[in-house]
Design a protein that fits this description.
By secondary structure, the protein is of the alpha+beta class. The protein has three domains: 92 residues; 31 residues, no CATH class; 88 residues, Efflux pump adaptor protein, beta barrel domain (Elongation Factor Tu (Ef-tu), domain 3). It has two helices and eight strands; from the N terminus they run ααββββββββ. A hairpin with a 5-residue loop joins strand 4 and strand 5. Helix 1 runs antiparallel to helix 2. The longest helix is centred in the N-terminal third of the chain and has 47 residues.
């Protein structure tokens, strides 16, 4: 398409040159017309000479109009090529897979060599540099929890000791809910609790679904 565009550009330059030649011939005839008009006034030339010049000028105007029509056609042809190049360029751009974030691949849904159809998921990726811990607090604890509050997050270091990390409260649920079944016993599930999310910088030790505890302090 680029080669085709170049060929059309050459044709455009050629047609432009033809127009310039006709315009130069017209300028020469106008000079001659002025000269003959003065001679006629002095009775040194005939009106036929003037008529011949006017006829030549009319012919040049028609030729310029005809050439200009070719120029318009070339412009339309160039526009079509530009549109095709734009479409191909967009298709080439879409051939590249760009991650929306810098992260870790969690799941793969396609293998090398498979066709990547539009709209098909290839993999699941997540930014694990900061993990989010969700905990639940009772109504009595809620007043001591604030947005942006810095808290201690405890994870297992080994069977007997914990490791302490720093976290920031990023979200507090505006609605109470029954305690999730996976966290508390059946007797305690009737209690209403509030969900709280805490953002924790991940040094690589935190994993998805890892259990943790939070110390909100006094």
């Amino acid at each position: 398409m680029q080669a085709q565009k170049k060929a059309v550009s050459v044709k455009k330059n050629s047609v432009s040159s033809q127009i310039e030649v006709q315009q130069q011939q017209k300028a020469n005839l106008l000079v001659e017309k002025n000269r003959v008009t003065k001679l006629i006034a002095e009775k040194a030339a005939t009106t036929k000479q003037l008529d011949d010049i006017n006829g030549s000028l009319d012919l040049i105007d028609k030729q310029v109009t005809s050439i200009q029509t070719q120029m318009d056609g070339i412009a339309e042809e160039m526009e079509v090529i530009e549109r095709q190049i734009s479409q191909v360029s967009e298709s080439i751009r879409k051939c590249y897979i760009c991650n929306p974030v810098t992260g870790t691949v969690l799941n793969k849904f396609a293998e090398t060599g498979e066709i990547a159809a539009p709209g098909r998921a290839l993999y699941k990726i997540a930014d694990l540099s900061t993990m989010e811990l969700k905990v639940y607090v009772s109504g009595n604890q809620l007043p001591s929890v604030k947005q942006g509050q810095q808290v201690e997050v405890l994870i297992d270091a080994d069977k007997k000791s914990n490791r302490t990390l720093s976290g920031i409260v990023s979200w507090i649920s505006p609605k109470a809910e029954f305690t999730p079944k996976i966290i508390q016993t059946k007797e305690e599930r009737v209690n209403l609790v509030y969900g709280v999310k805490i953002r924790v910088a991940n040094d690589g030790s935190l994993k998805i679904a890892m259990p943790a505890e939070v110390n909100f302090g006094k």
